[in-house]
Amino acid sequence: MMIKIYTLAIAVFINVQLFAQANDYSVREVKSGLYIPWEMVSAPDGTIWFTQRHGSISRLNPVTGAIKQLIFEQNVSINNGEGGMLGLALHPDFPNTPEVFCSYNYLANGNDYREKLVVYEYNATTDALTYKRLIVDFIDAAVIHNGSRLLINNNMLYMTTGDAADQSLPQNTSSLNGKILRYNLDGTIPSDNPIPGSAVWSYGHRNPQGLTMMGTKLVSSEHGPSNDDEINIIEAGRNYGWPNVEGYCNLPAEITFCNANNVYEPAKSWTPTIAVCGIDFYTHSLFPQWQNKLLLASLKNQAIYVLTFDANQNTIISEVDIPQVSFGRIRDVLAAPNGKIYVSTSNSNSVNNKIDKIYEIYDPTPNNLDTDETPNLKNNWTASPVPANNTITIQNKSNRGIAEIDLVDMSGKLIKQLHSQGKQMQIDITGLAAGFYYLKIKENGSVSQILKIQKL
């Protein structure tokens, strides 16, 4: 028998439907009637901003499902392929600096398909976005391989670009295609970029469609051809092989090329492909089974995968999908600051067939616990070991004295009441049925902390 334990703040949900207690999460539909929500980002006020490929940037209230279109970019062209309104990022000091970065495809001179990166400005009075400035223009685009994601980290703006169906571009460092680009937030080229005067940060990419930070490491997901989808650790100036290398450096010609061209092998390669897409690194304690792991959206396999890295965060050593998360093709995944996870689909086959949705994965804490943790007491209690066999040890960092501990099930029903005095106590869990439970710790009449446990 094992348990998993973590601390959480109790939340109340509307129209909650619980799944079986074999999982400690539930899923609900937040918004429907969308057209391929490409990239989702969290705003400081708890809302979700997202692009849709036909040209809109919208803001979603994840609690009510209310949506506000902030701009519809008339210049966007889908071109019946992968293009359209794509990457999105908010300024790190948003809304004090109300800038919104976005990349999209358009037709120049009537028929020349291109990609650009622009900055919009948010006006709180009009609750709308307006064009502010251009960062880069005339990146090659095509019906396929326009993969564009944006990410801001340490006040640097990163952008992925696809090879636009031209295999001569990824190895050409004079081209911006098949690259991960890096800019200052004002659009200038950072002085420490690997190629002086160039936005190119890494090269040799085919069609990268996910980008996130994993601690201090930049990580991307990349579509392979009919083989070798990839997860890559991105380093400055490194070559990622395409089109000379597919996946690992494991064929004679690939080994020769890799040795001669500073190629960084992927952390993971999939053959057959799963059509990797949006990624995010999950760090919250709300779902400890996914904590410090990479979440990956799969289009082809219609799943969210949880990827575990080795201790050095160089190689993926295991992957599992999240059960009961199957909504068709999945385009993006967002780990929100409050620990909830949002998933966007990619099932619409035309702008007139808006069937895509955004879903929320949340913790189904029972409403009838009816309590809040006391902020100044929270996090004084810990539990170990995790996992455990038959007993867990509850420890109190402050050693304030007597505490009352209610053990309740997922419905809020009291199973037993315990009393703790001193710095620690042991709790016997051998008699519990498999499932999830809560320990409600009360001190001096106030609830100081809620611990969640799972017995398998």
From TrEMBL:
Residues 1-22 form the signal peptide. Gene3D superfamilies: TolB, C-terminal domain. Residues 36-349 form the Glucose/Sorbosone dehydrogenase domain. Residues 385-447 form the Secretion system C-terminal sorting domain. SUPFAM superfamilies: Soluble quinoprotein glucose dehydrogenase. InterPro entries: 6-blade_b-propeller_TolB-like, Glc/Sorbosone_DH, Quinoprot_gluc/sorb_DH_b-prop, Secre_tail. Keywords: Signal. This is PQQ-dependent sugar dehydrogenase. It comes from Chryseobacterium herbae.
